[in-house]
Design brief:
Chain A is 56% helix and 11% strand. Chain A is an alpha/beta fold. The longest helix of chain A has 43 residues. In chain B, 64% of the residues lie in helices and 4% in strands. In chain B, 49% of the residues are buried. The chains are: A alpha/beta, B mainly alpha. At the A-B interface, helix 11 and helix 23 of A face helix 9 and helix 13 of B.
Chain lengths: 621, 521
């Protein structure tokens, strides 16, 4: 006797019996209901399923608008509600308990609920997405609070809830006061000294980046994971791999997302893909609902709680993950098809202390306009040279926003991401080091969409730089402790690479305008700040610094064989001005709106990523 | 062969170089180039004015800065110590690199050691404080980077080559011509990377690359990319350096043209001087601009490298690029090249043999060719050194032939040392001496401090020159016989002008072959 809607679909010839067997295996592995498995692992479209239910005489109930007596749902555990997809609504006048279920023909569930509530059950059909939304909103409070406050509770020193600590404020204002006082005492000397200091700091930060790049470029010499090793993997031994996809109002990208996920070479039944949607994001939810083809991801709705940030959503999603490993991608990402397998191989090869692997990021729309070209240059040197350089020198690696692959249990142990940090990934990378673990660099590329619109770019970049400032402030609360934990090399590397990056962006326009004013306008006042020897140092530092940055950009192009971009490297000084604008915006926000998440609009590109999937795999060795 | 043995041999080589330099110095032999850097170091740490000028613009920068590291050993010894360490380091790196070749360590270690210990160019480079040592070292590093890149095409090697080329140019400005000399092989490397018709001949590959629009664009992009990655840093560094010179010293070529910044203004021989010198000159060899047969004789090892070479066309062009460079150099250069310049072919030959010397013939044959060419190189080195046009190289070869006899002989002082000793006895802060170190740097450095001296380093120098009687008691004058007398205002010709125009009464206090010291009455 058929016991679920899928059995019934098979019996009327609307569903393949073999697929049902496959569903059964996956459902048992994940402890999901059959219908959840069918709808989230690419076996069945929602539209087809709804049509079947309506044909069976069910009317789809708008469960989110139904009256609800919460005493019943409160007796159920969220994981069960989410896995089986049901939501007890209220007791009807006839004594039956009204339950919204994704599979109203699920006899097993009916029996279970009858026993639990000691009353007859009346199933009504409801969209699985609406049920998901409802159960997370009603029962997700504990988990969302954990997502927000878990790190703060476990390790308050590492939480970015407090942006500036009292000692930091005293230090900052004390330094400012001292500086102003010294200016009054001897304006000329102090201004000259500051000028030299800033220009030397700028130069050394860039010099350090060149050093890192050269070190990183050595990484090309050895292929961490090769194709033969990937091929040798036995699929039966592969662990469940969770993929988190935090999105917000990314309705236009959902179709792309499915195709990108399909291109991943990993057994379907071992991919635990979670699309994390915010409570108020009906746009994305409806986009999922209206798909014409089977979705290969599970939707998780994150209940509202401030701060409304991506790390909070990811922390929330962590509670529902089943994998041994976990990867983070953005909705528009196109990872190399063998990326997950490469990670499995590399995790197995590396010592246990390696907790996370960072894949290289690059762009599929690199030739769209000037900005995307510059962005591509920057990302290429960052991920192909800088990060491997940091790894080779054993310096904390700020993780990139996506293509991070974690060992799930260790990530949970660390307390997940800091929801108050707007570059939670960079912060986590440093925290990993502080806790004695390591970050590895994976020789696999994920293609993303480069920001092609200047204002959108500045929004995104201001968030990144603000996050770097937050990260610096958090980890520099106790410099002595940081040195103890990550050593002098790590400490200096961290300050040069993360703190230094923000400072160079802030200083760049000041130094540049001083020099331009001196060289072009010849103002006497500025000339006094630039006596001959200062001018020598300042000119040298600025020109040499800019040249090195241009050079580093060009190197990366060389590696990726993006030869047509090489001349654009020369525009890097202009690109840096945009960075500086973003840096000042970030600094302003750090003071006034530290947790505000500047949303980056995706899907603006007119370039398709589909043709680039194969190409992505090739260059990153 | 263990690294331990190589280290022991390196230390032995250092000791050997120190011994020779000590013996040479004992007999009064000093190279003016080394003394030039020593004097600049003395100025850097003792002068109160224009120290940035000294630190920033003394050229070649690499030589000066490397000597700076050895200042704790004394200003006089720092440049020589630096070149000794560089040559020993070069020996170490070459022997270490030979591990990648199939040659037996019993073959390559004695050969390389013999070259470094016996070849006069190598010893000369090590013990004189000249730039030849740093040039040889960097040439080795550049070619090693290129060869490593060919074996494993990763950006690291090519970017290291770029950094080394930058250092190369700052060791000898004329290396900027490498931009042209490297073009053939860079173009060929680009072509090879396009993977067009791999099995066809290079000519067919050019045809394909140049007659297909897409391939042509790729080829142009790749060539430009390689060029930029290799030359961007060096060329911008040159541009920056020139602009700093223009801003700070008032001339973008100050570092090349000023006798206060560059030794070669006073130290090198101009063609004009050479033509009137005696038969002991080699400038005629340097008229072989197109094909430099001269080099085949001076460095048979380089010929052996070409004979043993088996590789791709672009690899061959890489080896030949230095010949091409010397052609450009001889076309443009207003000086003749001392023999020391050709030292660069030895490390290039060695690294080439190391990477490409074992595939064409059997190891036995290759070893014979390698060994015989090394012996010939040493012999030819002696021959050419005895016939060099450079006075200091010639003196060196003479001194070397008697170096062991000199051990027993009395300690000799060079002319500069003698003049310096005299000045030390007369000059005090109350009775100062006016010296122009454009030509008298060899004397200044032997004095060892700046007490009692007025040098052009001081901003008031020109004022003092206008009225010397008021400020100084003595003047050091370059005599007519002094080859550098045209480079200084304090020469005999100007002295007569002083006497007439400023009504100076001078008393000759001391005289040597090239110098005279006058007291102002």
């Amino acid at each position: 006797m058929p016991i679920s809607a899928l059995d019934n679909m098979v019996s009327v010839g609307l569903f393949d019996a073999n697929k049902l067997l496959e569903i059964e295996v996956i459902a048992n592995e994940f402890n999901y209901s059959y219908i959840k498995t069918a709808l989230n692992f690419g076996f069945l479209t929602r539209k087809k399923y709804v049509a079947f239910l309506e044909q069976e005489g069910f009317t789809m109930v708008a469960v989110r608008e139904e009256e609800m007596d919460e005493q019943y749902i409160n007796q159920c555990e969220l994981h069960e509600l989410n896995s089986i997809l049901y939501a007890p609504l209220r007791r009807e006048p006839d004594g039956r308990l009204l339950v919204a279920a994704a599979d109203p023909q699920d006899e097993k569930l009916k029996t279970l609920l009858t026993i639990r509530f000691q009353m007859p059950i009346h199933f009504v059909a409801a969209s699985d997405l609406d049920i998901t939304w409802l159960v997370h909103i009603k029962r997700g409070e504990y988990y969302v609070k954990e997502a927000v406050f878990s790190l703060m509770r476990k390790d308050p020193e590492q939480s970015g809830l407090i942006t500036f600590t009292d000692p930091q404020l005293i230090f900052i204002f004390g330094s400012l006061a001292l500086f102003v006082t010294l200016l009054f005492v001897n304006f000329l000397k102090v201004a000259m000294f500051s000028n030299v200091l800033f220009s030397v700091a700028f130069f050394f930060t860039v010099l350090f980046k060149l050093y890192l790049s050269l070190n990183g470029s050595k990484a090309e010499m050895k292929e961490l994971v090769n194709k033969a090793e990937v091929k040798a993997l036995e699929e039966d031994t592969l662990p469940i791999y969770t993929i988190l996809l935090p999105v917000y109002k990314e309705d236009k990208l959902i179709r792309k997302l499915i195709w990108n996920l399909r291109s991943l070479d990993y057994p379907r039944g071992k991919l635990d893909v979670k699309l994390l949607i915010e409570e108020d994001d009906d746009k994305t939810l409806n986009a999922v609902r209206n798909l014409d083809f089977p979705a290969n991801f599970e939707t998780i709705v994150v209940p509202f709680h401030m701060p409304k940030t991506k790390p909070k959503a990811c922390n929330y999603g962590l509670h529902f993950c089943r994998g041994e490993y976990l990867a983070i991608y953005d909705a528009e990402d196109v990872p190399d098809s063998d990326q997950l397998k490469k990670c499995v191989v590399l995790f197995r090869k590396l010592p246990d202390e390696f907790l996370v692997l960072q894949g290289a990021l690059n762009y599929f729309n690199k030739n769209e306009n000037m900005l995307t070209r510059m962005f591509t240059l920057e990302y290429t040197y960052w991920f192909d040279y800088m990060l491997p350089g940091l790894m080779s020198l054993d310096i904390p690696i700020p993780l990139g926003g996506t293509s991070n692959h974690f060992k799930l249990d260790k990530l949970m142990e660390l307390g997940g991401w800091d929801p108050f940090n707007v570059t939670e990934d960079a912060d986590l990378g440093v925290r990993v080091f502080e806790k004695g673990y390591k970050v590895g660099i994976l020789n696999s590329t994920t293609l993303e969409e480069a920001n092609n619109e200047p204002f959108n770019w500045i929004r995104q970049r201001s968030r990144w730089i603000k996050g770097y400032m937050q990260t610096t402030l958090v980890h520099m609360r106790n410099p002595a402790r940081l040195i103890r934990r990550i050593g002098w090399r790590g400490f200096l590397g961290f300050n040069f690479f993360i703190g230094g990056t923000c400072i160079t962006f802030l200083l760049y326009p000041i130094l540049l305008s001083f020099l331009i004013i001196y060289a072009i306008v010849k103002l006497t006042f500025v000339a006094t700040l630039f006596p001959d020897w200062v001018l020598y140092i300042a000119t040298f530092n600025l020109v040499a610094g800019n040249t090195m940055m241009i050079y580093v950009n060009m190197l990366s192009v060389f590696k990726r064989k993006y030869y047509e971009l090489i001349l654009f490297g020369a525009l890097n000084p202009l690109y840096w001005i945009m960075h500086s604008i973003a840096a000042y915006k970030g600094l302003w926000q750090l003071i006034y709106k530290p947790f505000y998440w500047e949303k980056t609009n995706h899907g603006l590109t007119k370039v398709s990523s589909s043709g680039t999937v194969a190409n992505a795999a090739e260059p990153a060795h | 062969m263990s690294k331990h043995l190589i280290k022991i041999l390196t230390v032995l080589l250092i000791a050997y170089y120190i011994g020779i330099s000590w013996l040479l110095k004992r007999h009064g032999f000093e190279h003016s180039s080394g003394l030039f850097y020593s004097e600049k170091l003395l100025l850097l740490f003792n002068a109160k004015e224009n120290t940035i000028l000294t630190l920033g613009f003394t050229f070649p920068t690499t030589v000066f800065l490397s000597a700076l590291l050895f200042v704790p050993l004394g200003y006089l010894y720092a440049p020589v110590a630096s070149t000794i360490i560089m040559m020993a380091g070069l020996f170490y790196m070459i022997v270490d690199e030979f591990k990648v070749s199939k040659f037996s360590s019993k073959i390559y270690i004695p050969i390389v050691f013999a070259i470094f210990a016996l070849h006069p160019m190598a010893v000369f480079a090590a013990v004189t404080g000249r730039k030849n040592a740093v040039i040889a070292l960097i040439a080795f590093l550049i070619f090693r980077s290129f060869y490593r890149y060919y074996k494993q095409p990763v950006t690291y090697h090519i970017s290291m080559a770029s950094l080394y080329i930058g250092c190369f140019i700052f060791s000898n400005f004329e290396f900027v011509w490498l931009v042209l000399a490297f073009f053939p092989f860079i173009f060929l490397v680009s072509l090879d990377g396009l993977m067009i018709a791999k099995d066809e001949s290079p000519l067919f590959q050019y045809y394909e690359a140049l007659n297909n629009r897409s391939q042509r664009r790729k080829l142009a992009n790749r060539t430009a990319a390689l060029y930029l990655v290799i030359f961007l840093l060096p060329l911008i560094a040159v541009l920056l350096f020139r602009s700093l010179n223009a801003q700070y010293a008032g001339s973008s070529t100050y570092f090349l043209d000023s006798p206060y910044a560059s030794w070669r203004i006073t130290g090198n021989l101009r063609l004009g001087n050479l033509i009137v010198s005696d038969s002991r000159n080699n400038f005629v060899y340097q008229t072989q601009i197109v094909i430099q047969g001269f080099i085949l004789f001076i460095t048979p090892l380089y010929v052996a490298a070409l004979i043993l070479f088996k590789g791709k066309l672009y690899e061959l062009f890489t080896i030949l690029s230095m010949l091409l460079y010397y052609s450009f150099l001889l076309l443009s250069y207003k000086f003749t090249l001392n023999l020391g310049y050709y030292l660069v072919f030895i490390p290039i030959a060695l690294v080439t043999i190391c990477y490409y010397g074992t595939e064409k013939y059997s190891i036995r044959t290759s070893s014979w060719i390698f060994g015989v060419s090394a012996v010939l190189t040493i012999i030819m080195g002696y021959y050419f050194f005895q016939h060099t046009a450079s006075e200091e190289e010639y003196t060196f070869s003479k001194e070397m032939s008697t170096v062991y006899k000199n051990w027993q002989g009395p300690r000799l002082l060079s002319e500069s040392q003698q003049v310096a000793q005299y000045i030390s006895t007369i000059a005090t802060d109350d009775r100062k001496i006016l010296i122009d170190d454009a030509s008298a740097y060899t004397i200044v450095v032997h004095i060892g401090n700046l007490n009692g001296m007025i040098l052009p380093q001081e901003k008031a120098f020109v004022t003092i020159l206008e009225n010397p009687a008021k400020f100084v008691k003595y003047m050091l004058i370059a005599k007519r016989s002094n080859p550098t007398q045209n480079l200084t205002v304090l020469n005999e010709f100007n002295l007569k002008m002083f006497v007439v125009q400023k009504n100076l009464h001078l008393l000759l206090m001391y005289e040597s072959e090239n110098w005279a010291i006058y007291q102002i009455e």
